[in-house]
Design goal:
heterodimer; A: about 525 residues; alpha/beta; six-stranded mixed β-sheet; 20 strands; globular; B: three-stranded antiparallel β-sheet; 15 helices; 3 strands; elongated
């Protein structure tokens, strides 16, 4: 393919003798939108970084012929000086987390102008003027003022827009976008995607979008490359690959959308509520500025006027953006935060005195989002999972406790046969999904009736997410567990929940049964959430 | 393999740290038995058909044919002669001098240069430098161990309380530390050493009063970071008490700065004792100490063997401690893979 903008042949990247990308071949035509899809660890980001030789420790081999403005050249063997000319001018990159990708000590304007001065040789005045225009193109309101803002003064969406403005400053021929929307809230993702789409049309540049989100691929890209463990397993036009996936891995990715498999009418539907909240309100003290702050505190209300009921065997889904107060609600339900209003668990209220609450702790357990910080790195599996028994079943002998731990681990699908010496292992020896299973086992061992799931799968890859959700569904059916499920993911809610609360700015804006609420959202905010997910 | 065995495996992988610990421990254990290595009393003696253990029991000179009821001076040529008679013998330690021994029968004036009698020479009062170095090393290391343990315990407790409870507790404790830390430590030491009789325990108390603050800050920061991680929340949701959470969950994850600084705190403690002794503010006179030897070396510039050998012992001790450095930290972190 001689007309290709980028022609990669046999690209191999190795770190310390370990190949993370093996023999990649792909082309990108001018103006084409290509998506590079794969799970974490599949080598997709490394591929993009190696094209610009941004991996100093890696051994990169193969060729990557790029048709730049100064003629075609091999990116991988080009002298460093010439590569500098290509970086930023012909090939630009945007990153996942704009907060860390922008320099916090310079204003957004200075950072955009720097590119223009370096690459196009504009003087200060011209560069500043051009920067305003670039910012305006990305849809940031009042670009003249925003130019003087530091990265921390912008919202997440605005930061990502500023990054895009910076990347597009020299009208590159190829844009490498590494998970450009992953760090953003659902409602913002669509906007950023639309922006990239329109700018791509306007400038006629090619985009290589790196993502794990198949919805995004479907919406944005024309061609897709699927990577698994450093190799390309399939590539082709998006419509074709999605309609007739050839490789089993592609199929499993496409099938990874969570499936609803819950009992619609739980067995004990008529029983008294397991958790009941009325006019729940949680607030944090905030420091006040000036002398007043010496004597009084301000107040930040994180959750206000929350009413909900969780019957036995039911799942109550809570959905909202970051900062909507949904995680605070979870901590209040666990009795870990002081709150006002009424909250009853199995007919009792939290007293916030550890000794009195101990019996209730056995009823309500929790699984957190981040499988890496939710397990103490210095305790063994046996200590982590068995800890609940030392509190709530202190009379057990060491042997009995060990047997119970083993049983709980088997129930979440971790067995001694799979992992020799399982009980003596440390959390770091397990993958994210396995760690989440450990966290579930830790909660299960005290036989709780309600488990608070705070974003239980959002840190996991899609195929793993599906498995963990299946596990949770099975446990619910077998044990008539109730879940309070906190998530930002409409797909997860759709698969798991019976009832749904939609939260925004600390308040519940809409509540109802899952089917009616998601199919016919009443509140405009719910509508944007549901639409953004499709 | 049990977790502690794996930790030992990880420690051994750091060759430099491993060998440094091994050598340091050997030296320390040898110095603990200093009385058997360097002493002016024989370990075992046979005189006129009877056995004596002069090292444990005080035997008067009259027993061995002397004139007085005083403790025997085994360096006395007359006593040596007595033991040289057929049937009698005395088994001396390798270095026949105690740190306080003054050899009244020395062949050379004090301070004497290294010779077969005194391997590292004598100091200006005729005491054997090798013996004083051995005993001085022991006191330094014991003192450093005590000071470090007290500092670590105090620092851990105060840091844990501040970091775990946060809020007002933290605020008031921080202000207290700021005031306490602003006191001129050295001058307080000088004043106190004038007020009280100098002793090792007084020094230990005075230095401990100020030695915990640095560590406390690190532990506090680790606790502040760890207490808001999900595994601590999960432990609270499990119903663990504050004490259990601190002890089982946060403490093991907050030990990195403690363990990393351990060898360096040891060497700082040794240096502190040495400098105070050098200034004459440390241990009571007569106590074998590296600082006092250095001061003698300064006062007797010509007696190069005093300062040179003391300097050598100090450098080797501090070097071994520094080489241990990161090894214990790596060993205690299970995330470091074995093999």
């Amino acid at each position: 393919m001689s007309s290709a903008l980028l022609d990669v042949q046999n690209l191999t990247v190795a770190f310390g003798g370990k190949e993370v990308v093996r023999g990649l071949d792909f082309q990108i035509a001018p103006g084409e939108k290509v998506a590079l899809v794969g799970e974490s660890g599949s080598g997709k980001t490394v591929t993009a970084l190696s094209l610009l030789r941004l991996l100093p420790d890696a051994r990169v081999s193969g060729t990557a012929r790029f048709a730049g403005s100064d003629g075609a050249s091999d990116l991988l063997s080009l002298p460093a000086r010439e590569l500098l000319g290509i970086r930023g001018r012909d090939i630009a990159m945007i990153f996942q987390e704009p907060m860390t990708a922008l320099n916090p000590l310079f204003t957004v304007g200075e950072q955009i102008a720097e590119v223009l001065q370096l690459k196009l040789g504009l003087d200060r005045g011209a560069a500043a003027e051009r920067a305003i225009q670039l910012l305006a193109d990305t849809g940031i309101p009042q670009p003249e003022q925003r130019l003087r803002a530091f990265p921390h003064q912008l919202s997440g969406g605005q930061r990502q827009r500023a990054m895009i403005a910076m990347a597009l400053a020299c009208q590159p021929r190829l844009l490498l976008a590494d998970e450009p929307t992953t760090a953003l809230d659902v409602a913002l993702r669509g906007q950023i995607l639309d922006l990239l789409d329109s700018l791509q049309h306007k400038h006629g540049m090619a985009v290589l979008m790196i993502t794990h989100d198949l919805n995004l691929v479907r919406r944005f890209a024309s061609r897709v490359i699927v990577m698994e463990r450093g190799c390309i397993v399939e590539q082709g036009p998006v419509a074709e690959v999605f309609a007739r996936p050839q490789h089993p891995y592609t199929r499993s990715l496409i099938d990874s959308r969570p499936v609803r498999d819950v009992q619609e009418v739980p067995p004990q539907a008529g029983a008294p509520a397991l958790m009941q909240a009325r006019a729940l309100r949680v607030s944090y003290p905030t420091p006040l500025a000036g002398l007043r702050g010496w004597f009084r505190h301000g107040e930040f209300v994180a959750v206000q006027g929350a009413d909900f009921v969780i019957p036995p065997g039911h799942t109550l889904g809570v959905i909202g953006e970051s900062g909507s107060g949904k995680s605070t609600l979870a901590l209040a339900a666990l009795g870990l935060l002081p709150f006002q209003g009424e909250l009853q668990v199995a007919g009792r209220a939290w007293s916030r005195r550890p000794a009195l609450d101990r019996a209730l702790r056995r009823v309500v357990q929790v699984v957190f989002q981040d499988p890496f910080s939710s397990l103490s790195p210095r305790l063994t599996v046996e200590e982590i999972v068995g800890e609940g028994l030392t509190i709530h079943a202190a009379t057990l002998s060491g042997e009995e406790r060990r047997a119970r731990v083993q049983k709980a681990l088997e129930e979440v699908g971790l067995s001694e046969a799979q992992f020799p010496g399982l009980l003596q292992r440390y959390p770091h020896e397990f993958s994210g999904g396995q760690r989440q299973r450990l966290a579930i086992a830790r909660a299960l061992i005290v036989e709780p009736r309600l488990i608070v799931l705070d974003e239980p799968t959002s840190a996991l890859d899609v195929t793993i997410q599906k498995q963990v959700l299946q596990l949770l569904q099975r446990l619910q059916r077998e044990r008539a567990l109730s879940y309070l499920l906190i998530t930002h993911d409409v797909d997860v809610i759709r698969a798991m929940a019976h009832e749904v609360l939609v939260m925004k700015g600390g308040e519940i804006v809409e509540a109802g049964p899952v089917a009616t609420l998601l199919d016919a959202p009443g509140h405009p905010y719910t509508r944007t959430l549901v639409q953004a997910a499709v | 393999m049990s977790p502690s065995q794996r930790a030992w495996q990880r420690f051994r992988r750091n060759r430099l740290g491993y060998w440094s610990l091994l050598i340091f421990c050997t030296l320390f254990i040898l110095s603990l038995g200093a009385e058997l290595i360097s002493n002016d009393k024989p370990l075992l003696a046979r005189y006129d058909g009877r056995w004596y253990f002069p090292i444990v029991s005080n035997v008067p000179e009259t027993t061995f044919g002397g004139d007085f009821q005083t403790p025997t001076d085994y360096l006395d040529p007359f006593i040596r002669q007595q033991f040289a008679r057929p049937g009698n013998f005395a088994l001396y330690p390798p270095n026949p001098y105690h740190y306080s021994t003054i050899n009244y029968f020395a062949k050379e004036p004090n301070p004497a240069a290294p010779s077969a009698d005194n391997w590292l020479g004598t100091d200006d009062r005729g005491r054997d430098v090798a013996a004083r170095l051995l005993y001085g090393f022991r006191i330094s290391v014991l003192f450093a161990l005590a000071l470090t343990s007290i500092g670590v315990v105090l620092g851990l407790i105060t840091g844990a309380v501040q970091g775990y409870f946060g809020g007002k507790t933290d605020l008031w404790f921080q202000r207290f530390i700021e005031i306490w830390g602003s006191m001129p430590e050295l001058y307080l030491l000088i004043i106190f050493s004038a007020m009280f009789d100098p002793s090792v325990s007084l020094l230990l108390i005075l230095l401990s009063l100020f030695g915990w603050m640095g560590l406390s800050d690190y532990v506090r920061a680790e606790f502040l970071r760890n207490r808001q991680l999900d595994y601590v929340r999960a432990a609270r949701a499990m119903g663990l008490s504050n004490g259990q959470i601190i002890w089982r969950h946060i403490l093991p994850n907050s030990l990195t700065p403690v363990v990393t600084f351990l060898p360096f705190r040891m060497s700082a403690a040794i240096l502190a004792l040495t400098s105070l002794d050098f200034l004459g503010l440390g241990v009571p006179p007569g106590t074998p100490s590296l600082g006092e030897l250095l001061a003698q070396g300064k006062n007797n510039i010509d007696a190069w063997w005093i300062s040179l050998s003391t300097f050598g012992v100090l450098v080797i001790t501090l070097l071994l401690l520094t080489f241990m450095g990161d090894a214990p930290r790596d060993a205690l972190d299970p995330r470091n893979a074995e093999t």
